[in-house]
Amino acid sequence: MVKPALLGIIAIAATLFGAGPEWRSRIDLKPLLDDPSALHRLRIAYMYDDKPGQVFYLYGDGHLILQQLPTRRGVWADLVPTCTARVSEDIIKDLIRLLIEKNFFDLPEKRFLFLYASAASEEDLHLHTIIIEAEEGRSSRSFGTGTFGKETQSIPPEFAEIEAAIQRIQNDAFPPSKTCRVAPPLKF
């Protein structure tokens, strides 16, 4: 039986990231550091299924959005809990520098195909995904922790550092006491 949260993540990814710029294995991020216009077209989405259905969006202009999407299969909502905040462009540029320094696009492109899933907890897989969209295209990296196909999955240290930086931005911008509103789900 496939975990409902896992189905929710798959459905969210398919819905949010279907149409748009062409998918590429890598994107040149260096021009974003010197070209404000290109920086403002940058969009990053971060998801991890420790918080099923939650998607954190970072925009090059410093705009941040945190949405909680439905995780049940076949359920879609016109309005979802949505938090917004803003950080300086320097924080976004620091994240871009980290992506470059840690060679984000040299990390392997892993794909996890779910035809079945075991209910046994030792075979659970927790996905961590970062999607980057810039003027020249869209690229992503996903890694899992846990077991998939009888293999233990882990997150490379470079990805973990990038993920930790994104989580710091998210936690600083959206403390647990922050009040959110409802809004339509974003299409990335």
Outline the structure in words.
The chain is globular and about 40 Å long. The protein has helices spanning 4-16, 30-34, 36-40, 89-101, 157-173; strands at residues 43-48, 54-59, 63-68, 80-86, 125-134, 137-148, 151-153, 181-183. Mean pLDDT is 80; it is low at 1-18 and 113-123. Strands 7-6-5-1-2-3-4-8 form an 8-stranded antiparallel beta sheet. The protein has one domain: Mago nashi protein, CATH 3.30.1560. A hairpin with a 5-residue loop joins β1 and β2 (54-59). With 188 residues, the chain is α+β, with helices and mostly antiparallel strands.
Task: Give a topology summary.
Blueprint lengths: L3 H13 L13 H5 L1 H5 L2 E6 L5 E6 L3 E6 L11 E7 L2 H13 L23 E10 L2 E12 L2 E3 L3 H17 L7 E3 L5
Antiparallel strand pairs: 1-2, 1-5, 2-3, 3-4, 4-8, 5-6, 6-7
What does this entry show, briefly?
The chain is α+β, with helices and mostly antiparallel strands and 188 residues long. 28% of the residues lie in helices and 28% in strands.
